[in-house]
Amino acid sequence: RFVYLPYLGLKRVLWALMLVMSVAIYGSHAPLLTLCKVDGKIPFSASSVVVLTELTKLVISFISLLIWDRRQLGVSLSWRHAAPFALSALLYAANNNLVVHMQLFMDPSTYQVLSNLKIGSTALLYSMFLHQRLSLHKWLALFLLTAAGASYTYGGLQDLQHSSSSSEMQLHVTLIGLLLISVYCLISGLSAVYTEVILKTQDLPLTLQNLFLYYFGVLLNLIVHLLSSNGAGFLDGFSFWVLVIVVSQALNGLIMSVVMKHSSNITRLFVISCSMLVNALLSILLFSLQLTGPPGEYSSLQYCNFF
């Protein structure tokens, strides 16, 4: 008992650190992409970044397997264990590339708020596929979140139409951005729920499952890169901030695999929601983002915190 209690406390501390780190990474992703822009454009290939991110996760997973689950290397495995992860990798590949392209059609804070609509899509798919019934209070919360996203979208479009020519970043989103964010939220929910089902139904260590997932991730994203390459070099347009994105997204992917294996997508949704404040603070500090509204009404920042 005396040995178990300190272990339990350490486990809780590690969980808390992982979740806090994930909140910070989620919230900083869009601002980091904005820092990489040159003359308003993304100077690097989105597919290159995704390939490097998946490759980083693959290498870390393989090293983890050698350290903690070396005995699994001698176990005979069937292709049926690995094949389900191909679809997960395909869905993640589509979304990872979408995230980069969406930054051209909206500011970082607008992306962070609207991307939270994937909480609704994930919860719906979670209830359907995992047969987890949601209470009335939870459905009401999802409705409020959807309403908040819709209201924020309208405000962002209005800000774009009436924005001034100042150097300060304005809240904005285009119609193409709305279409892309809708597709992104649907794929995000589907990929998360599907991956959780696989991770929990297979009696395999997480390190080996990650190895399968990221192997397909590297393969599929490399194919995407080769097909979409316009002759530019693989690392063209890379900077220090791009490398920060690669490392941070790799760490976040590994953290989320632990969350889905040993907790649930509901925990993941909580992390995503908390990251909105991190994103807003970074956007204010780095880009002088104006989060104000007409007199007598909630400002955008107040509105985000309310929900």
UniProtKB/TrEMBL annotation:
<dbReference type="GO" id="GO:0000139">
    <property type="term" value="C:Golgi membrane"/>
</dbReference>
<feature type="transmembrane region" description="Helical">
    <location>
        <begin position="211"/>
        <end position="228"/>
    </location>
</feature>
<feature type="transmembrane region" description="Helical">
    <location>
        <begin position="12"/>
        <end position="32"/>
    </location>
</feature>
<feature type="transmembrane region" description="Helical">
    <location>
        <begin position="269"/>
        <end position="291"/>
    </location>
</feature>
<keyword id="KW-0812">Transmembrane</keyword>
<keyword id="KW-0813">Transport</keyword>
<feature type="transmembrane region" description="Helical">
    <location>
        <begin position="240"/>
        <end position="260"/>
    </location>
</feature>
<dbReference type="GO" id="GO:0015165">
    <property type="term" value="F:pyrimidine nucleotide-sugar transmembrane transporter activity"/>
</dbReference>
<keyword id="KW-0472">Membrane</keyword>
<keyword id="KW-1133">Transmembrane helix</keyword>
<feature type="transmembrane region" description="Helical">
    <location>
        <begin position="44"/>
        <end position="67"/>
    </location>
</feature>
<dbReference type="Pfam" id="PF04142">
    <property type="entry name" value="Nuc_sug_transp"/>
</dbReference>
<dbReference type="InterPro" id="IPR037185">
    <property type="entry name" value="EmrE-like"/>
</dbReference>
<dbReference type="InterPro" id="IPR007271">
    <property type="entry name" value="Nuc_sug_transpt"/>
</dbReference>
<feature type="transmembrane region" description="Helical">
    <location>
        <begin position="136"/>
        <end position="155"/>
    </location>
</feature>
<protein>
    <submittedName>
        <fullName>Solute carrier family 35 member A4</fullName>
    </submittedName>
</protein>
<keyword id="KW-0762">Sugar transport</keyword>
<feature type="transmembrane region" description="Helical">
    <location>
        <begin position="175"/>
        <end position="199"/>
    </location>
</feature>
<comment type="similarity">
    <text>Belongs to the nucleotide-sugar transporter family. SLC35A subfamily.</text>
</comment>
